[in-house]
């Protein structure tokens, strides 16, 4: 199965690249070429062809339909709030902030972390340029990850870039002009759809929970028409809870429904301009969508292809061995995260398994479902993860090891602990300077408790984050440690 979808994505990437490389060729009559590259109208398409193109469309468009559906849901909030008391939601153009780590019962996104305080906001940049406020975070690590519809990050906003406190303007692809007075810079989005997820590092101490509250109040976005040159603030600690609590047992909210995918896919084609070399692919997809509108049988085949692809290829992306590239000792690491270009394989894989990665120069991710013997991690067993002396992830920001259940979410445990790393100031190092973390369902007791990650019933996975990595993280020379089975 893996070979099948690797081949499919390779073909898509190669096709886009080949078209892009053909641009320098001399074409006498461009209009004639345009006609030749458009699918013929009125053709009788067989089932096999319809399903082949529909499968490609589903694989390619899955992350973007996902993005647009999240925006449509999140921006229904009438004011900044917490959906189900857990996830920040806000009207279009605004954002909402947590004031502590995200709650373990959330299902908005897979692979959340409990190292940062999150925020979330979505925008329509063809309607309003957006003011982004950056308060003074002092020495604290922070980034504002701003994404376009393709789930690529746009702009460089955060501590790794030396971003200064103040105001920044986020604009759409059609915006033209000089940097307005009072702004430190302008961030250009390639699509009208954009969203921002602030990540502000917080230590797991009562003192830091108090210290972070002041800057959090000034993390805000709003339309340019509301800008007055003064830093606004919002009391996020008092925002209400709206909506129902999610059912964590069902996994992540189903943002892409295969039976309705092609009702939403045309919007993606209209709202997301093609990259160079994608024009012919867009033409094929538009032709398919139009044929589906005119012929119920064609639409039925399209939906069948979407359902089948969701059950097979998309489901396979949830396995960590199918994400990124090998990192050593049985781990994989992220590749092209949030800078996917025409790497459709890793874009769709990331959207399925761990949506909203940071860029490689901000964060590298290492993940695995298996121990050092390549056996599935399970709550039936106990494990250790030992970083040798000087071998913890080399970072300028922070690092963490997080445990996720089989749905890439948290399973509540007696310590309410889901990760260990920089934020924990009471980790116990071994006498030789190494650091051993204990993964087990039962409490290991004694001085091991500070280094214990409780595991759930059933299978689980482990995930290392390295924020603002040093050179060995960036170039791939650092390897995660082996996960050793104890019993």
Automatic annotation (TrEMBL):
Quote any Pfam family the record assigns: DUF1254
Q: Which InterPro entries match?
A: DUF1214, DUF1214_C_sf, DUF1254, DUF1254_sf
Span of the signal peptide = 1-20
Q: Which domain of life is it from?
A: Bacteria
- Locate the DUF1214 domain: which residues? 362-470
Q: Which PANTHER family match?
A: BLL3101 PROTEIN
Instruction: Specify the protein name.
Output: Lipoprotein
């Amino acid at each position: 199965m893996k070979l099948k979808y690797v081949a499919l994505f390779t073909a898509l990437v190669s096709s886009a690249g080949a078209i892009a490389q053909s641009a320098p060729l001399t074409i006498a009559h461009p209009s004639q070429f345009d006609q030749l590259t458009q699918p013929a109208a009125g053709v009788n398409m067989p089932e096999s062809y319809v399903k082949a193109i529909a499968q490609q469309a589903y694989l390619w468009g899955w992350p973007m339909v996902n993005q647009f559906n999240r925006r449509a849901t999140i921006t229904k909030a009438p004011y900044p709030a917490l959906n189900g008391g857990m996830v920040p939601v806000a009207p279009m153009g605004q954002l909402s902030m947590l004031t502590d780590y995200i709650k373990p019962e959330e299902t908005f996104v897979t692979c959340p972390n409990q190292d940062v305080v999150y925020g979330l906001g979505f925008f329509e940049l063809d309607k309003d340029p957006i003011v982004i406020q950056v308060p003074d975070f002092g020495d604290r690590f922070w980034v504002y990850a701003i994404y376009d519809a393709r789930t690529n990050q746009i702009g460089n906003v955060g501590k790794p870039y030396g971003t200064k406190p103040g105001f920044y303007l986020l604009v759409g692809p059609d915006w033209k002009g000089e940097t307005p007075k009072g702004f430190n810079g302008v961030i250009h989005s390639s699509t009208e759809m954009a969203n921002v997820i602030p990540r502000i590092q917080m230590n797991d101490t009562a003192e830091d929970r108090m210290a972070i509250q002041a800057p959090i109040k000034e993390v805000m976005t709003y339309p340019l028409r509301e800008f007055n040159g003064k830093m606004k603030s919002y009391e996020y600690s008092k925002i209400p809870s709206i909506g129902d609590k999610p059912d964590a047992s069902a996994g992540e909210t189903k943002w892409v429904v295969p039976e309705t995918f092609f009702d939403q896919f045309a919007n993606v084609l209209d709202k997301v301009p093609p990259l160079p070399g994608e024009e012919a692919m867009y033409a094929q997809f538009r032709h398919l969508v139009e044929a589906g509108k005119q012929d119920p049988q064609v639409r039925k085949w399209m939906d069948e292809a979407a359902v089948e692809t969701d059950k097979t290829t998309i489901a396979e992306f949830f396995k960590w061995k199918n994400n990124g590239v090998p990192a050593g000792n049985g781990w994989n690491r992220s590749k092209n995260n949030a800078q996917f270009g025409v790497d459709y394989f890793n874009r769709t894989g990331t959207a399925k398994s761990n949506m909203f990665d940071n860029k490689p120069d901000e964060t590298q991710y290492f993940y695995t479902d298996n121990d050092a013997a390549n056996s599935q991690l399970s709550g039936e067993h106990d494990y250790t993860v030992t970083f040798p002396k000087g071998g913890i992830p080399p970072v300028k920001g922070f690092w963490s090891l997080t445990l996720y259940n089989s749905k890439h979410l948290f399973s509540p445990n007696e310590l309410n602990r889901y990760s260990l790393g920089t934020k924990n100031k009471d980790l116990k190092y071994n006498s030789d300077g190494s650091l051993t973390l204990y993964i087990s369902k039962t409490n290991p007791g004694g001085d091991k408790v500070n280094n214990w990650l409780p595991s759930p019933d059933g299978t689980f996975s482990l995930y290392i984050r390295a924020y603002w990595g040093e050179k060995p993280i960036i170039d791939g020379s650092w390897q995660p440690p082996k996960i050793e089975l104890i019993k």
